[in-house]
Write a structure and sequence with these properties.
There is one protein chain. The chain is an alpha+beta fold. It has a single domain, classed as 3-Layer(aba) Sandwich (Glutaredoxin). 55% of the residues lie in helices and 14% in strands. The protein is built from 9 helices and 6 strands. The strands form 2 sheets. The protein has a 4-stranded mixed β-sheet. The model has no long low-confidence stretch (mean pLDDT 95).
Length: 219
């Protein structure tokens, strides 16, 4: 059994991050006889300057990317289809907002120490994209934390203090220095990178190539 170390640079605000992850999951299930994977999530903020109250998503996309209403519709349609294919439900029916995700990254860094990082990350994706929960409201965020079996009071303590601030900033800086400027980026065995919401076939192919290369290096 070959071991894969997979670091996923990602933001909960990024729809392609959950699409890419679900496709990664499919690829790993297909290759479960050959590979086992250790997954960790690395912090990236799509909108580090976003105020805490957030912004209407459509308004934000128009401002940031200059998307017309028509382009916005096209974009949503594509994300819906890709999500469905990957096994994730996006909900575009209610009010959706873009928020500053720094506090989410602090909680995810803590969740890693509790062995619950992937569980919390997936719960946050679902809360944000499927259930349209505003994660900039502390009680909502704590509900999600509690739903994966993490300690609510401890999470509140972290949010109310500066805990994990430095760890997240250091990781962000290290990733920037590596030249990572878009998400999702999947870093495999510390030396190979795949970017974007890749289909599962692309992961299967990449893992097999990496295994071959590493086998050759060991000869």
């Amino acid at each position: 059994m070959k071991k894969l170390k997979i670091d996923i640079v990602s933001d909960v605000m990024c729809p392609w991050c959950i699409i890419g992850y679900k496709n990664l999951e499919t690829a790993l299930a297909q290759l479960s006889d050959e590979f086992s994977a250790e997954i960790s999530w690395k912090p990236f903020e799509l909108n580090p300057d976003m105020p805490i109250e957030g912004q209407d998503l459509n308004e934000h996309l128009q401002q940031k990317y200059g998307l017309s209403e028509e382009q916005g519709d096209e974009n949503r349609k594509r994300i819906l289809e890709m999500g469905e294919k990957a096994g994730f439900t996006f909900n575009f029916d209610g009010k959706r907002i873009m928020i500053n995700s720094f506090d989410l990254h602090r909680l995810l860094t803590w969740a890693a120490t509790e062995g619950k990082q992937t569980e919390l990350k997936l719960a946050l994706f679902k809360a944000h994209f499927t259930d349209l929960i505003f994660l900039n409201e502390q009680d909502n965020l704590l509900d999600v934390v509690q739903s994966v079996g993490l300690d609510r009071a401890r999470a509140k303590e972290i949010l109310d203090s500066g805990e994990y601030f430095q760890e997240v900033r250091s990781e962000q800086n290290a990733l920037q220095q590596m030249g990572i400027s878009s998400v999702p980026t999947f870093i495999i065995n510390d030396q190979y990178a795949l970017t974007g919401g890749q289909p599962s076939d692309a992961f299967v192919q990449a893992f097999k190539q990496i295994a071959e290369q590493e086998a050759q290096q060991q000869q």
